[in-house]
């Protein structure tokens, strides 16, 4: 029954087309059995009672688990840091690596030093430095996300507190969004035969659960040519 639901949802060519902007082979996200639901890059159905949803809304419960959560502007002592670059939102660091250009990294640093990533700035960044987009981004994005989450765990006490405040599966709640990326990183609430589930890959949620279990030490593998500000990636 659960596999039938997933297959029906992913038989929509429009959804698969949207997912192709995120991964090289969207059909590889389709599980062949329910045992594969727990695999990082597979769609699944997760019983709602065992999940802890969170959304991008300041003041909401478990807000700090969201990649878009932002540290207050007036609390500079709490800002995260990569070398001497200080930032308030892990999404800033995550987006830097998709572009292979020190000029691009410094542009984003200068434009977002006391701000947070918003849709307009992300679009501007991607368009301005389109020729420097990493060709392997779809393959390395989850490994880079692991790195970013390790750094966030190290620097962000509010994040650590929220992460360890529950033993349930974290879920970036995509119920009220229309982006395919939200079904990749998160999941949406669905009802099947009177029971509530979260449906999606929930890649971010799975990584958060692993990060919690490993207490901030997610192993990752990154290519040697992945640089920030023209230098090799710093060790956390």
Describe this entry's structure for a reader:
This protein is α+β, with helices and mostly antiparallel strands and 236 residues long. The protein contains nine helices and nine strands. It has a three-stranded antiparallel β-sheet. Strand 6 and strand 7 form a beta hairpin. Helix 6 packs across helix 9. The longest helix is centred in the middle third of the chain and has 19 residues. It is globular, with a radius of gyration of 18 Å. It starts with a helix and ends with a strand.
What's the layout of helices and strands?
Layout lengths: L1 H8 L3 H7 L24 E4 L3 E4 L25 E3 L2 E3 L2 H7 L5 H11 L6 H10 L8 H19 L1 H8 L4 E4 L7 H6 L2 E5 L2 E6 L2 H11 L13 E2 L2 E2 L4
Parallel strand pairs: 2-5
Antiparallel strand pairs: 1-7, 3-4, 6-7, 8-9
Helix pairs in contact: 6-9
């Amino acid at each position: 029954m659960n596999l039938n639901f997933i297959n029906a949802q992913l038989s929509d060519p429009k959804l698969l087309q949207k997912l192709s902007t995120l991964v090289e082979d969207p059909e590889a996200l389709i599980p062949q059995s329910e045992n594969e639901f727990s695999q990082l890059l597979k769609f699944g159905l997760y019983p709602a009672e065992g999940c802890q949803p969170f959304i991008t809304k300041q003041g909401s419960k478990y807000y700090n688990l969201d990649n878009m959560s932002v540290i207050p502007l007036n609390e500079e002592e709490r800002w995260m840091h990569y070398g001497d670059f200080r930032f308030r939102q892990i999404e800033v660091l995550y987006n830097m690596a998709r572009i292979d250009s020190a000029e691009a990294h410094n542009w984003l640093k200068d434009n977002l030093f006391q701000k947070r990533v918003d849709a307009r700035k992300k679009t501007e960044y991607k368009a301005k430095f389109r020729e420097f987009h990493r060709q392997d981004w779809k393959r390395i994005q989850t490994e880079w996300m692991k790195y970013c989450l390790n750094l966030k765990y190290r620097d962000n006490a509010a994040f650590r507190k929220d992460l360890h405040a529950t033993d349930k599966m974290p879920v970036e709640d995509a119920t009220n969004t229309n982006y395919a990326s939200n079904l990749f990183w998160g999941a949406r609430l669905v009802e099947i035969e009177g029971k509530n589930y979260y449906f999606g890959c929930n890649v971010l949620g799975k990584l958060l659960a692993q990060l919690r279990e490993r207490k901030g030490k997610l192993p990752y593998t990154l290519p040697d040519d992945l640089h920030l500000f023209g230098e090799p990636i710093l060790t956390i």
